[in-house]
Amino acid sequence: MSEPEIEIPPHVRGGVWANDVYVFGDLEEATLDFVRLEPRDPARGVVVARVTVPPSCILKLKRDLERFQ
Fold it and tell me: 6-37 as b/e, with b when 16 or more CB fall inside 10 Å?
């Protein structure tokens, strides 16, 4: 199967910076909160992106990330 053509809207192209991630969910879906912790106070942070995905996306993400190990 070939990769789909993906469009990135202008307001998303810059991305966001996160230095932590929290995962929660159940068998049906997982929610990933990407968090930017404050460098001078790591006990404080802000969610910069929240993404909820089905298990199939988590498995694909795991496979893709394993290529970097």
Answer: eeeeeeeeeeeebeeeeeeeeeeebebbbbbe
Among 60, 52, 53, smallest CA distance to 3 is for 60
Contact 31, 21 (CB under 8 A): no
Task: Give 3-state DSSP helix, strand, coil % of the chain, rounded to 5.
Answer: 15, 40, 40
Q: How far apart are CA 36 and CA 33, in angstroms?
A: 10
Do you know the residue count of the chain? 69
Instruction: Report residue 4 as tokens.
Output: 């789909």
For the segment 7-65, what is each residue's pLDDT rounded down to a tens digit?
Answer: 999 999 999 999 999 999 998 999 999 999 999 998 999 999 999 999 999 999 999 99
